[in-house]
Amino acid sequence: MTRVEVEYCVPCGMLNRAQDVSEAVLKQFGEEVDEVALVTGDDGVFVVRAGGEVVFDKTEDEYDVDAIVRAVRPYVGASA
Length: 80
Known about the structure:
This protein has 80 residues and is of the alpha+beta class. It is built from two helices and four strands, in the order βαβββα. It has helices spanning 15-29, 65-72, and strands spanning 2-9, 33-41, 46-50, 53-57. The termini are close together. This is Putative selenoprotein. Keywords: Redox-active center.
């Protein structure tokens, strides 16, 4: 099963965004994912990884929860 990791900047106040992404992934994939983890960071980081691969990085992509969930989809069940 797949581990999804949402690394977010604590000082920047990105917890709400991180929670929104993790909730959306859990709603979409439920028990198909092994874990959705919130990982604290700093320096403006907001990165989503699925199966160890970066699927979203705010420095390169526009924040869109639905797009992030779509980016996670190919990794769900890939390691099963």
